[in-house]
Specification:
275 residues, alpha/beta, Rossmann fold, seven-stranded mixed sheet, 12 helices, 7 strands, 16% strand
């Protein structure tokens, strides 16, 4: 089988880390996600995935499971809603969680979209958009699909500057007030130890935006509903995790709180910023 070449930018290359994490999980005896599509893509891509190692691979799977839990809840409440992935990478969420009625948009930079379209062609009610999260010209295409809307940005905003993140939030709040927005934040402990993380030794990109307290972002036009760590997933999500995660993460949080609590997955509502 001819393998697909990869020509990704420095930050975009990091999307291969969670892809490999999901592929490894799919091979496990007791998987968290069981993402067979991720395993298939890893087999098709011409890339040295073996250079990625360490706990961040498993962590990326737990993160996705937490985001999945929020999207499932949204679709249960709004089965005809619209889910927008901001910085989709090679996520398979639309394929794993689709209910046969929802609309899905997968947005990413052109080089990522080119690879995504080769590996994950658009299906019914899904559309891939080549654009940056910093742009707004794609807003009307999403708005035309109709709401309510759920915006997901997984392992993306961390690579931007704080002013850029604030600009993204403000623009979304002006155009889609009342919509849900889920994204992850990293505190100082996590940011200071990036160079010790085995997966980051394999890539050149580094995260830049530090946020120690997600509640502090409420001044940006956000209302925080939930903030979770790997030790505190939604109860229905955690019940599906293998025991090593279900019991191991809370234990690690007690033994080394800064290590676990510095990284958080957060669910917000967008509010129109004050003028």
């Amino acid at each position: 089988m001819t393998k697909e070449p990869v020509g990704l930018g420095t930050v975009q290359e990091t999307l291969l880390i969670p892809l490999y994490g999901r592929a490894l999980d799919a091979r496990a005896r007791h998987p968290v996600l069981g993402d067979a599509e991720a395993r298939r893509m890893v087999d098709r891509i011409d890339y040295d995935f073996a250079k990625f190692r360490g706990p961040s691979l498993g962590g990326s799977v737990l993160r996705t499971a937490i985001f999945d839990g929020w999207v499932r809840r949204f679709l249960a409440e709004h089965p005809d809603g619209t889910v927008v992935e901001l910085g989709a990478g090679l996520t398979t969420r639309s394929r794993r969680l689709d209910n046969g009625r929802a609309r899905w948009f997968d947005l990413d930079l052109p080089d990522t979209v080119e690879l995504r379209r080769r590996l994950l062609p658009d299906a019914e009610r899904t559309e891939t958009l080549a654009a940056s999260v910093l742009d707004t010209d794609w807003f009307e295409r999403v708005a035309a699909a109709g709401g309510p809307y759920f915006f997901v940005s997984e392992a993306v905003l961390l690579y931007l500057g704080e002013d850029e993140v604030r600009g993204v939030v403000a623009a979304l709040g002006r155009r889609f007030p009342g919509s849900a927005l889920a994204f992850d934040t990293g505190g100082g402990t996590m940011m200071r130890h990036q160079d010790r993380n085995p997966v980051f030794k394999a890539v050149d990109a580094r995260m830049t935006w530090t946020c120690d307290d997600p509640r502090s972002l409420e001044g940006w036009g956000l209302r925080l509903h939930e903030s979770r760590t790997f030790a505190t997933p939604q109860p229905d999500v955690g019940r599906g995790w293998p025991w090593r995660h279900r019991y191991g993460m809370p234990l690690l949080a007690r033994l080394a709180p800064p290590v676990v609590n510095s990284y958080r997955m957060n669910l917000f509502t967008l509010e129109e910023p004050a003028r």
